Amino acid sequence: MSKDNLYRYLFENASVRGELVQLESSYQEVISAHDYPLAIQKILGELMASTSLLTATLKFSGDISVQLQGDGPVSLAVINGNNLQQLRGVSRWQGDISDDASLQQMFGKGYMVITLTPDDGERYQGVVGLEKETLAECLEDYFQQSEQLPTKIKLFADTKQAAGMFLQVLPTDGEHNDEFEHLSILTETVKQEELFTLEAQDVLHRLYHEEDVRLYEPVAVSFKCTCSKERSAKAIRTVAKAEVDAIIAEQGKVEMGCEYCNSTYVFDSIDIEAIYANSPSNSVTQ
User: Fold this and answer.
1) Confidence of residue 22 (pLDDT cuts 50, 70, 90)
2) 12, 16, 67, 165: least CB-packed within 10 angstroms?
3) What's the CA dihedral at 42, 48, 51, 53 to 10 degrees?
4) Keywords on this record (predicted)?
């Protein structure tokens, strides 16, 4: 049975909230789309776990994107998600990446961009430099800068699973919270093996057995790509028809590929005519 769930929990006697996420099949869907080096697989796993954790803090319906960019051999790693805990991701790189490459060795002078896009309301974007040794520490920096809320994050990934934990002072409690410091120290002791092999309630019991913890029902996390033939057709429509006709004349078809899931959508000359006719009666064949 695969582990792809997000758990929220609260401490009854402290103004602190927590989350725990365990990913397996959804993570495998992302890293199987390309022949990623080991270090990139791991960073995508950590990004998936962190995006799931961040999505759970959203107070709206909409999308979130956590993106790493830099001038190193890895130019991009991004995970997109939504409030339904549906995630997808991709990375772009050049050359050889060592298995134990650090964040800075992969991205060089890099930064993290977190974009929140509500279904209703204004888009928000926050940026923080990749100046710490780990993605978790960079995310803690982001929360300190953007929300001024003490936050503890732990992230793990190997070639099969990814997992993470998130601890944060409740917004109403301000910055000083002795209980958070105590709980943060306990959370720091969590091991990768525990998050990969134990049930969530067992992890929480091991970490916080002297605390009164309220664990909520899990939310399923899944891989979901939003690509489709219709979306590809819309993209084609943005290109001058003469250019598309030239491709049809040379190759007999137009192919549109999705980086996220490796799906390929093929359009023949009849499809292309229907696209540019832009008539509801001229639907693109599936």
Assistant:
1) very high
2) 12
3) -90
4) Chaperone, Cytoplasm, Disulfide bond, Redox-active center, Zinc
d(CA 239, CA 158) in angstroms, rounded, equals 41
Which tokens hold the place of 65? 């994107």
| CB-based contact 31:81 (threshold 8 Å) | no
Q: What is the dihedral of CA 81, 85, 86, 89, to 10 degrees?
A: 40
The span from the CA of 66 to the CA of 274, in Å, is 36
Beta strand pairing call for 74-82 and 264-267? unpaired
Confidence of residue 175 (pLDDT cuts 50, 70, 90): low
Q: Match 């960019």 to its residue by tokens.
A: 69
Give the global pTM: 0.84
| Non-local CB neighbours of 187 within 8 Å, separated by 6+ positions | 18, 152, 154, 165, 167, 207
